Amino acid sequence: MKIKAVIVEDSRLARNELKELIKKHEEIELVGEAENVDNGFELIQNTIPDLLFLDINMPEKDGFELLEMLDEVPITIFTTAFDEYAIKSFEYNALDYLLKPVSEKRFAMAMDKVKAKLEGRGEDKVAETKKLSESSQIFIKDGEACWLVKIGDIALFEIVGNYTRVFFEDKKPLLYKSLNQVEEKLPEASFFRANRQQIVNTNFIENVVPWFNGKLKLTLKNGEEVEVSRRQSYIFKDKMSL
After folding, report:
1. Overall number of domains in the chain
2. For the Response regulatory domain, which residue ranges apply (predicted)?
3. Could you identify which of 27, 100, 147, 159 might form a hypothetical disulfide with 197, taking C-beta atoms 3.0 to 4.6 angstroms apart as the criterion?
């Protein structure tokens, strides 16, 4: 069993110590390392590792914030010099919590847990890739506000930088996921990619009018207007016709 791993840790010394421990376990393939949360997020998105060694105390953003940014979270082992975060780490479903400096014996025990977890993960992986239905609920947290929202109640998804804005009722919170990640999970029967920036719930379309250069313009029940790209307009007409 080959286990793809990444390290997100701001201390070069701590990263080197982890790499020495990893070398003693041939089943672990280190595919990258990062010294802060933003670089770590990009590294994880690019490499899709099985295992994440994650420091908690880092400048600007901490390890907990990185986990909240991820759509698919690898098996996570926290590595830290402080023990006061132990309880909180398990609230984030961390598999283990290693105090620095990490001994070879303690590291080996953590790797046994990782292998046991991966061996029983096959069915979970299948479940994770399933599409959501209109009755599925998603949890959204934006600042101090939280919502549990039915997919079918969402009228529109829209790119805002690295975030996706979610339109439901009179709310417009931000979700730290790309629009492509969101689209992969949505039910195709009711959601349509209108352009590179927006996905609409076709059940919320109130009006459709021809627009410039073969495009269409949609007006949604919440008053939002969406311009459908020319290419997607042809697909939309085909999708919505008898």
Report:
1. 2
2. 4-115
3. 159
